[in-house]
Design a protein that fits this description.
The protein is an all-alpha fold and 143 residues long. Helix content is 64%, strand content 0%. It folds into 2 domains: 84 residues, Four Helix Bundle (Hemerythrin (Met), subunit A) (Up-down Bundle); 35 residues, no CATH class. Helix 1 packs antiparallel against helix 2. The protein is elongated and about 65 Å long.
């Protein structure tokens, strides 16, 4: 029931989750919810900016503004923007998944074992889905 309040809870401006609080209490959930929601909004704004730049580039190229060197440079910038946008899209998917975990009460717990990931790790990596040990094991299997 208390989990429902994390979306509307107003935290003090300097609030930081503390180990002395119950793990993933409503205050901690509100903190991470606000943090992730802010990141999501920033990424969405960046995506809109990149799309506008791509549209402008298409119009500019169609009109024939600039010489070949200008156009090549501009196209390179657009390509880099699109790569960044793709990276941000993947990050946005991870943020949405984390927000879903907050919603369903599994945020801060390993998707593999269900164990607490730990407040220190969640503060450092709010998108973490594995404990440090599980992450290390995953990375050693991957290489």
């Amino acid at each position: 029931m208390a989990q429902e309040n994390y979306k509307t809870l107003e935290l003090p401006a300097n609030y930081k989750p503390k180990k002395s609080e119950p793990y993933m209490c409503v205050q901690q959930l509100a903190y991470f919810y606000q943090l992730l929601t802010t990141q999501k909004e920033e990424l969405s704004d960046e995506r809109d900016s990149v799309l506008s730049a791509v549209r402008l580039a298409d119009k500019t190229e169609a009109v024939g503004v600039g010489d070949d060197s200008d156009n090549a440079s501009y196209n390179q910038d657009i390509t880099m923007d699109l790569r960044m946008s793709e990276r941000n899209h993947k990050l946005l998917q991870k943020i949405n998944a984390a927000l879903d975990r907050i919603e369903n009460g599994t945020f801060g717990y390993s998707v593999e074992s269900g164990d607490e990931i730990g407040l220190q790790r969640m503060m450092a990596r709010p998108l973490a889905t594995l404990t440090v040990e599980e992450q290390e094991e995953y990375e050693s299997r991957k290489s």
